[in-house]
Amino acid sequence: RKPGNRDLPGRGVRGHEATRPVAVGLALEREARRVPLKRDERVIGVAHIGSLTAFEFSDEDKLLFRTMVSRATSGIVKAQILADLQRAEIAQRFLADASRELATSLDYQTTIDKIARLAVPAIADWCVVDLYNDGSFTRVSVAHADPSKETLAGELELRYPTDPNDTVGIPHVIRTGITEWGSELSEQELR
User: What distances in angstroms separate CA 147 from CA 31, 112, 151, one per listed residue?
Assistant: First the structure.
């Protein structure tokens, strides 16, 4: 690094004025480099280095950091691709097992139970199958990673039956035929 002329707080990276200095610990950062980590032109992260002294990074330091970030990004992208391939392999194996299992019985209850048992633990912690007939829902299969909790699902359905007029969940899917995905259950769904 070489001495710089940026002793004033609030100065940013060359060519870009910062509105305020960045606080690092109890000191103010005077020189910083932020380099994007990219996968297919999409930013997946930012690598950041900084200096608490009134120096600026040399061109060699900047090149070294960009090169290091580029190599690190390659490693991250390779790991992400490998994880994607492993997930795809697990999904393919699950579908092959499910197809083989589901073809072994013509009894619908056995088939429905197999759907639930195949989903747990391959892709989920629990699976419930409800059938809709003549305006009512019937819970026909329950599978849980912890088998002791399977009876709890039945008890909860008896204690808090599904309202056929709900605007989310099972009634909504029955009425619309549209798959519902949710990352978190709302208060209404938990009722």
Answer: 57, 17, 8
Which position has the higher pLDDT, 186 or 128?
128
User: In whole angstroms, what is the distance from residue 118 CA to residue 141 CA?
Assistant: 12
What is Dmax (Cα atoms) for the chain?
81
Tokens for 11, please give them.
């100065």
Half-sphere exposure of 135 (CA within 13 A, CB side): 0
Q: What whole-number distance in Å separates Cα of residue 28 and Cα of residue 1?
A: 18
**In angstroms, rounded to a whole number, what is the distance separating the alpha carbons of residues 45 and 155?**
46
Q: What is the pTM of this model?
A: 0.52
pLDDT surpassing 80 at residue 187? no
DSSP letter for 127, please: E
Which residues are CB-contacts of 109 (< 8 A; sequence separation ≥ 6)?
140, 141
Q: Give me the DSSP letters along 22-53.
A: EEETTEEE-EEEEEEEEETTEEEEEEEEEESS
> With the C-alpha atoms ordered 35, 36, 37, 41, is the resulting torsion angle positive or negative?
negative
